[in-house]
Amino acid sequence: CDVICMKRRAFLGSLAACPAFATVPSKSEGAAVRAIAEAFLREHGIGGMSIAYGRDGVIEFEQGHGFADADKKEAVTPQHRFRIASISKPITATAVMMEVEQGRLKLSDTIWGPKGLLGGDYDGDLAAITIDHLLTHTSGGWANDKNDPMFKNIAMKHDELIAWTLSNQKLTHKPGEHFAYSNFGYCVLGRVLEKLSDKSYAEHVNEAVFAKCGITTMRIAGNTLAERQPLEVMYLTEKPGAAYSMNVARMDSHGGWIATASDLVRFASQLPRFLNDESIHTMTTHDVSEGYARGWNVNKVPNWWHTGSLPGTTTIMVHTAKGWCWAGLLNGRKEGLGLALDKLMWRMGRELKVSGI
């Protein structure tokens, strides 16, 4: 669903965390950000972008740039929603950690086999895979590569795809020994949440997570152009229709949400509404992989973030060490665009006088 840059840019590791805007952003600062953003869209040939900055659930700055639908000259506004791709993973990780904190789940719980949460006639290494292995991408298989099961058998439902994958794509490592970024692992975590809550993944997350932080407009994306939702942007791809030929709805817990940039800032900046300090520390501390914890990329500052990438979509969500958060969403994808978007968001933060950048 996206390519994670595990060697985070060195300059990020040396940045001081951002304590606050010096003042409420002025009109001139907003104008400077708009000029930078519009130049970025022209340089990279991207149709539209939405950005937001804030902390503690308060949106301090948001802007839309370019077009949500270029053919209709529909301008992007802060209310427009984008597919967020793998930024869905920290949302799922948060929902899982809530279940752990509340005692309904343990990180050591196994997934399959006679004692597993999802059961099934499985043994050996498959029966040894735990919740924590899935959170940390250390299950031992199903990497985000050309054989990624989430982009195969697009007509299959979740349960059918999981059964097919376990039968046809064997583990390549023992659980816990090897990091390999796995969309499939987070798909399975979504099914665990459904089993525990007796609700659909989307229903559970809306009630358990989003309702606690004032998010009301996030939805699971549709697959086709006909299923484009109100105030959802058009996704532009070099290959016509490539954004509308995937089973995005089936990606729900690893890459299926649509959101505004402000939705993501509200989520990232209010993690203490969901979890206590110990749980947040667990979720944002890496064990096996240098640079990836449980649903979040992390560095030594510590800043936490996640990126997202699908045909027609490039996204980033950042939580800095002092609590400042931001999100940037694009309705296009090109080689290297994720890194460029990350640098852009820091640059625009400097224009807005987010001190410490």
**Element order: H for helix, E for strand:** HHEEEEHHHHHEHEHHEEEEH
Question: What is the approximate shape?
Answer: globular
Mean pLDDT: 92
Strand content: 5-15%
| Total beta strands | 10
How many DSSP helices?
11
The residue ranges in which pLDDT falls below 50 over 5 or more consecutive positions are: 2-23
**N-C termini distance:** 29 Å
- Compute the gyration radius: what is it? 19 Å
Q: Helix/strand/pairing class, anyone?
A: alpha+beta
Instruction: Summarize the biggest pleated sheet.
Output: 7 strands, antiparallel
Give the % helix.
25-40%
**Physical arrangement of strands within the biggest beta sheet:** 3-2-1-10-9-8-7
Task: Indicate the topology.
Elements: H1 10-14, H2 27-44, E1 48-55, E2 58-69, E3 74-75, E4 82-83, H3 88-101, H4 131-135, H5 158-168, H6 183-197, H7 201-208, E5 219-220, H8 252-255, E6 257-259, H9 261-268, H10 277-283, E7 297-298, E8 304-310, E9 313-319, E10 325-330, H11 337-351
Antiparallel strand pairs: 1-2, 1-10, 2-3, 4-6, 5-6, 7-8, 8-9, 9-10
Attribute tags:
357 residues, alpha+beta, seven-stranded antiparallel sheet, three-stranded antiparallel sheet, 31% helix, disordered N terminus
